[in-house]
Amino acid sequence: MAVQAALLTILVATATVVLANGDVPIPENEAQVNTWFNQNIRPFGERKGTLDPNLVKAEEGVKIIRVRKDGSEDFKKIADAIKTIPAWNTKRVIIDIGPGEYHEKVLIDYNQPYVSLVGSSPKDRPTITYGATAKQYGTVDSATVIVLAPYFVAANLIFKNSAPRPDPYKKDGQALAFRINGDKAAFFNSKFIGFQDTLCDDRGYHFFKDCYIEGTVDFIFGRGTSLYLNADLFVIGDKGLTVITAQGRGDRVSTGYSFVHSRIEGTGNSTTFLGRPWGDKTKVVYTYTYMSNVIQPGGWSDNSQTSKNFYYGEYKSVGPGSSKGKRAKFSKQLTFDQVKPFITLGYIKASTWLLPAPKPL
């Protein structure tokens, strides 16, 4: 019995190490993804010993602020609620947002960590919308919502830029719905709606689960290291240039975007690129992804760059836009061993900071 008990202890310890390291790959069977996630990202109470101590401290002292358009709770505007968060906040602040459309520009500054924006209903998601453009604010500061602080969480929300569709061949028309510059950020069941440069996914480790992202040109761009799981990517490709990603790895060789079990659909026929470089390097990988006929046969654009210091990879994607026959020569059809680092939670160092999606309050 003593031997059996010792063996059980070793097996449990080994399993804990595997989960903590985030080395368990996302399963190929999409029906198993939620089970996989729940097994690998356990609730806060079960993981205090493995999380960042500062995050543990924050999660043990939660404050809730409620925002309702009708003024029935603490605030009518999201920006007013955020102003009450002190500089260098050390506790998790959950801003619970009621249904409706909030016309405002929101900033969570670099010294306001541990903020969560949570829609009060997963089905009746509130919309945060504004119509700023690059002409008015510059590209990255045109975003409806800007988050510069670490440990941000968003759930059950719609982020929108309501500016009109720009001409992709002219400057100053970019209009962002969201910009994330804070490290260790997570997004659940949220939508990002715009045209050019919808989502600026920039700087740090980020996780997106069950999110919808819509746009025309470079509508996911930046220098983040991000895992997109079960993402719906909708291309408005009925006219002009359309590109999904413009990842800007530069000298940050560890950064890149990984899309797993995502779906690419939209308007237009065989006109959209999966990605093009922003700068002289870029890293984007699609795994187990459905690609409709909006994707053009070559798949990827080099943006007329001669260096070809790109890492564009695909593994076991399906659909009429996934054909390997005419793919650009600088892209890669990966093996499982090559794709594995991109389809584990270890890719974003999730074991020290990622928690399950917040539940409605």
From TrEMBL:
EC number annotated for this UniProt entry: 3.1.1.11
The entry's localization annotation reads: Secreted, Cell wall
Q: Which residues form the signal peptide?
A: 1-20
Q: Name one Pfam family in it.
A: Pectinesterase
List, in alphabetical order, the GO biological process terms annotated in this UniProt record: cell wall modification; pectin catabolic process
Q: Which domain of life is it from?
A: Eukaryota
Q: What class of enzyme is it?
A: hydrolase
Q: Which UniProt keywords apply?
A: Aspartyl esterase, Cell wall, Hydrolase, Secreted, Signal
Chain coiled-coil ranges: none
- Substrates-to-products reaction catalysed: [(1->4)-alpha-D-galacturonosyl methyl ester](n) + n H2O = [(1->4)-alpha-D-galacturonosyl](n) + n methanol + n H(+)
Q: What is its main location?
A: secreted
Which sites are catalytic? D218
Pathway annotation from the record = Glycan metabolism; pectin degradation; 2-dehydro-3-deoxy-D-gluconate from pectin: step 1/5
User: Membrane-spanning residues where?
Assistant: none
What are the protein's GO molecular function terms? pectinesterase activity
- Domain Pectinesterase catalytic: residue ranges: 66-344
What family does this chain come from, according to its entry? Answer: Belongs to the pectinesterase family.
Q: Could you identify this protein by its name? A: Pectinesterase
Q: What is the lineage of its organism?
A: Eukaryota, Viridiplantae, Streptophyta, Embryophyta, Tracheophyta
